[in-house]
Structures
1.
Amino acid sequence: MRFAELWAELEPLGRDPGTGGYRRYSWTAADSQCRDWFTHHATRLGLAVEPDRNGNLWAWWGDARAGAVATGSHLDSVPDGGGYDGALGVASALAAVAELKDKNFNPERAAVIAVLTEEEGARFRVPCLGTRLMTGAISGEDARALTDDDGTTLAQAMAAAGADPDQLGPDDDLLGRIAMFVELHVEQGRALEPLGVPVGVGDGIWPHGRWRLDFTGRADHAGTARLEDRHDPMLPCAQTALAAREQAAAHGAVATMSKVIAEPGGTNGINSAVHAWLDARAADEETLDRTSAAVLAAAQGAAKAHGVGLTVRQESYTPLVRFDQNLRDRIVRVLSADGLSAPVLGTGAGHDAGVLAARLPTAMLFVRNPTGISHSPAEQAHLADCETGVRALAAVLADLLADGR
Ligand code: GLV
Ligand code: MN
Ligand code: MN
C-alpha cells in the first residue's frame, strides 16, 4: 500500500470546502470517518486494531506482553487546521509497516501503530488528552467532566459516538506492553527548508501552558450607555491580548490569545462576558512561568480598571520535554546509514510523544514543511518528502524491530 494512495483517501475527510482547512474534532462524524479509514487500512495490512480504554486506537503487528515498538500520531485537527499535522504520522506509519511487510521483514518484537485522541485539545481544550489519560496526568473523572463550547461533556460525546467513558483512566497495562514510541510529524516551522534536507529528528519540546480567562461585565446598549458607566469585558480582554504580545517579546517567549467567545456577542451591545484563552510557551519553565504570570497580572489590572470581574483557570500545563537521547542518536545513525543526514531540531509545538516521554523513551521525526506554516490550511509537505519520511520511518522501525530486547 503506497503512501500516495492512503493519503488520497484520507485527504477529503473532515475538510471544509469553504476554507480548505480541516475540522476533525474528536468524537464527531469527521473523527469517526478518519478512524474508519485507519481501521480499514490497518486491518488490510493484517494488523489487529484495538481501541484502548481512553479512546485511542492501536493496530498491532504481533502480540506483545512487553517490548513493543510504537509509532503513529493523531488524526484530530485544530479549527481549519492543515492536513498534515498528525495525519502525516498515522499515514506514514501505515505505509512504513506496509513497506516492511512487502519486503518480508520479520520483526523480532511487536510493532504497534497508534491513533491518539484529542491531541490538539480543539474540542475539550486539554491537549494530548488520550495520552494524558493513559499516563494518569489527568484523571478519568476530570476528563469525563470536560465540556466543549456547546456544553457537551466528554462523557456525553464519547457515549454518542459509541465509546464507553466509564473506562477512562490510567492504563499501566498498555504502557507496560510498549517499550518506546517514535512519532513522525510534519515540521511546524521552517528549519529544514533552508538546510535543503527533507527529514529532521526531534530533540525536545518547549514547556507550554493554556489558561482560560472569564471576564464578566454588564450587558448594555452600545448607543446609549455612557462610556463612564460601562463595564465592558471586551476592553480588558483586548488589553490582555496586547500584554501577551508585549510580555512574550520582553521574555523571549511566545504567548497568544486566539480563542475568544463573546456573550451575547451582538454588534450593537456591550457584552455581559468574554471568555478568552491564553496559550504561552518558552524555552524553559522559569521563563514560561514569568511570562504567563506577567500576562495574567496585566489581565487582573485591566479588569479592575474597567470594573470587570475576572477568573483565571489553568486548563493544561506541559513541562519541558527532552526526548530520549540514546533513541535520538540511534535514529540519527540509522538515517545516516540510509543516506539521510537528519539535523536535530527542537520545537515549540506540543505532541503526544512529549506526554509519553514521562513514561517511555520517545523520539520524533520531522518532515520538511516548505511554508513553515502550521495550524492553517497553508501547512504543506511535498509528496516526495512524505515518501522520504515513510522510508526513514521504515528504516528506523526495521532497526528497532530487529533488536529483540
Ligand atoms: C499542538 O499542535 C500544539 O502545539 O498546541
Ligand atoms: Mn500534531
Ligand atoms: Mn497541532
2.
Amino acid sequence: MNKDFRVVKKCRICKSSKLYKFLDLNKMPIPNGFRKKEDLNKKEHKYELGCFFCENCSLVQLTIVVNPEIMFKNYLYFSALSKVMMNNFSSLAHEAYLAENLDENSLVCDIGSNDGSLLKFFKSYDSKIVGIDPAENIAKIAELSGIPTEVEYFNSISAKKIRKKYGLADVITATNVIAHTDNLYEVFKGVDILLKKDGVFITEFPYLVDLIDKLEFDTIYHEHLSYFSLKPWNLLVEKCGFEICDIRRLAIHGGSIRITHRRKNRNLKNPAKKTLEFLLDLEEKKGLSKKETYDEFSLKINKLKEELLTLLRSLKKDGKKIVGYGAAAKGNVLTNFFGIDTKILDFIVDATPYKQGLFTPGMKIPVYAENRLLKKMPDYAIILAWNFANEIMEKQETFSAKGGRFIIPLPEIKII
Ligand code: TMP
C-alpha cells in the first residue's frame, strides 16, 4: 500500500472484485484541505476521485482510500454551526431517550463525536456520555465544553479500551461518520464489544436514493468512502449478527437515512421489516442495482457542468459580481471539478471561524466571514452549501431585499 492512499480492489461489504467504474471527477486535493496564504505556492497533493459500483451487492464506493491521518487529524468541520443539524440531533436524542428509557445510569457513546453537539442533547437528559473522535483539535473543543472525548478511531481495540474505562453502552450513535470508515466490519465488531446485550446502535448517513435522484455528485469526495443504499447495508448488518429495527428518511444533508440496529434476536418480531422491504423495493425501482443508472448519473453531471459554466461566464461577461456561500467540502468538489476559480468567484463566505482567512483547496478562493456578503453586495451568491440553502437564505434576507440573488446549483440550476 502506498503511504498516502490505497487502491480499492474488492467491495468493502461483499468482497467481490466485480467493481464497475462509472464516475471520474479527476484528481483533486482533499476537499477539507483549506490552505494558508503563505502556503499557496507549495505543492498541493491531489488524489483521484472516482466511484465504483459493485455489481454483486450494489455498494457504491470510491476507487481509492486516502490515508485517514491526512484527512482527519486536524479537521475543520464543526457540527454546531447549523440550526438544522442541531434540530436533527435534538430529535435523535429525544427519540432514543424515550425508546430506550435512558436515565442517569445509562451510557451513550457517540462515534465521530466532532464538537460534542449530539452528546450535549443526551447530557441534557442526564445520561452519562462519551465521545470518540480522532480529530485532536475538535476533541479539545468538545472537552472544553464538558463532553468527555476519547481521541481515537473507533474499532475493536478502542472499543475495548472505552468499555474498560466507562462500562457498556445503552446507546451507540454514529452520525455522518460510517461513510468515512474503510473497515465496516471493525465498526460492528467495536459496537458488539461496547454495546449492552439489549442496547441499540443508531447511525445516520446520506441515502444513495437521494444522491442519485438529486444529482448530489459533489457529496462524493475522498472522506466519503461509501454511498449506501439499504441493500448492501442490510447485507453488512446481517453478516455482523445485527438487525435493523427502525428506519426513517431525513431531509438533512440533501437526504439521509437514520437506522437503528440491535443484535439479532429470533424471538422478537422485527418492527422495521415492512419499511425495510418497502425501501429495498424502492431502490430496485430506482435502478440502484443496475450499472446504467450510474452511467446516466455521470452524463447528467457533465451536462450540469456545461450549463452552470455557461450561466456563470455569461454573468461575468455582463460585468456581474459573483461570490460563493458556504466553503463546504462539497463546494470545493464542485468548484474543482467544474474549474470555477477566482476569475468567476471573488470570494466565498462561511460561518466557520477556522476556515475564514484561508483559501479553498485547488481553486484557491479566499474564504471570509459571512458579513462580507452585505459589505460587498455582489450581484449573485452561489450557494455551495446547498443543503443549508433555506437556512442561509433566511439568514441573509437583507441581501435579497437589497437586490442580491442566490444561485442554487443542484439538482438543476435555480436563481432566486
Ligand atoms: P457541510 O454541507 O459540509 O455541512 O458544510 C456546510 C458549510 O456551510 C460549512 O462550512 C458551514 C457553512 N455554513 C455557513 O457558512 N452559514 C450557514 O448558515 C450554514 C448553515 C452553514
